[in-house]
């Protein structure tokens, strides 16, 4: 938990991965390019003294991840967002099964999402059912830019995707996390388009659509859609890292998000291991709007807003009872391992909630 | 990597006036996603001039920058340089890009984008139109603000036609039915430039200010349209911050050659290769640059 103005802020990192980009797992040059690009994002937005070397970055493992997230209590919980990339990585880059290893070790600390790919047809639907049955996934992370043989991607508003969203609704998989990132194909029309979110969100009002990276580089289209679709949310990964070297830009983006979406639909995420909550949480919590931005947007990054953005909004989506969690964390395995008893008020029995 | 600095025809041997002329031409080429000059963004690695032959090498912030955008910058650079009367031929090389080889070959062979990427989903023209439209929306706010600040009513602002505005020197004159208001020319001229490029305001009777969808603005909606215009420019700037950080991550804070010197001051010809493992891969595939 983080303390701000004397108040505790329960932090749920809404976007983490446990990936494997070791060379022996790479089966396509795309896999190497992919991790190299990630590494550019890492070094581009990480304070110099906090940067990892590339080998560590390729594969950090469950142990380091646990320590990075929880060791200094930067985060209290985290949400796994798998990215399969089966055409690039032999065993997958960051699959539900890989994430499950850690999620099942500390089930009280992690939420495990699954994934689907509508191009997998009937087999994909069975896999989705299997994920629900095996892991009781509350959501999916979708990567519409993923390669699959000849296909270089898919759209959320296609008939095939709708069939999978229907299945999610039937199974009670409510949280649809969609990556919306840079252009992927020679001249893909998607380059300026988050419209597929629009159609999907209005067609499935019972599902929540969390757009990662707040649609960057299409923040404008994203905000306009989100302003009209109440079940669309913005995930802050990438934007939050701008606090490193573009704090003013971060303030502007937050101003826009709070203006168009309001404080209930903006969700913190580190995108670990792109960035490490170990330092990022502190940095985001300390972010301030300039006077000019306060005037312009009429919003504040005050305790109430940050409480929501850093934890409560994610908790709402995943039915996490924060007060219950605080009690549980007084003496769970993580607290024992990192000696966080005093932090959660356990040993002293002094928790006043 | 090519050792071209040993080439006696390059760099210091160039005519400084010609070099400057090339830079000025390249300065007109924009990164379409950011609406900023590729010179200002520091994408240019090297310029070599040999008589009437000009070679320009450039690198984008990531190997995954949209091939369509890369294509636009490469062809624009070629056409701008060849617009110089002494420049007989411009050769453009896109370095360290997933489609660098095809784009370099295609642009210099004067092929079309469609010939170079037969399986692309659409045409460069569509992307250019979408980009131009974003630039139109993002520049409208400052122009409208200039008028509102000069006490022009929202009703009057939304009713203006192209012919009501005249830019002369530092001033823009706005005709409000007999009454003329004078405002700073810059935001108005900037907007007019964008809105003409996007094709939204071309004739004298065209409505001057429009919604992002391209419709006339009801006066009571002017405020929300202004906020959408603000949002469009925040978006462009946000992407600029990402591109800039990736550019630095790839090349270090001191530019492509790590010398700390801007290419403008260099003797030219020095081309540093991205020394990551990516160099091993030269095939033509694409993917998103993010998770």
Automatic annotation (TrEMBL), chain A:
Q: Report the source organism.
A: Halorubrum ruber
Q: Which GO terms describe its molecular function?
A: hydrolase activity
Q: SUPFAM superfamilies annotated for this entry?
A: Metallo-dependent hydrolases
Q: Which superkingdom is the protein from?
A: Archaea
Amidohydrolase-related domain location: 12-320
Record InterPro entries:
Amidohydro-rel, Metal_Hydrolase
Name of the featured protein: Amidohydrolase
Q: Tell me which Gene3D superfamilies the record gives.
A: Metal-dependent hydrolases
Q: Which PANTHER family match?
A: BLR3681 PROTEIN (PTHR42889:SF1)
Automatic annotation (TrEMBL), chain B:
Q: What is this protein called?
A: Iron-sulfur cluster assembly protein
Q: Which InterPro entries match?
A: FSCA_dom_sf (IPR034904), MIP18-like (IPR002744)
Ranges for domain MIP18 family-like come to: 19-93
> Membrane spanning segments where?
none
Recorded hits in Pfam families, A to Z, give: FeS_assembly_P
Region (Disordered) location: 1-20, 248-276
What organism is recorded for this protein?
Answer: Halorubrum ruber
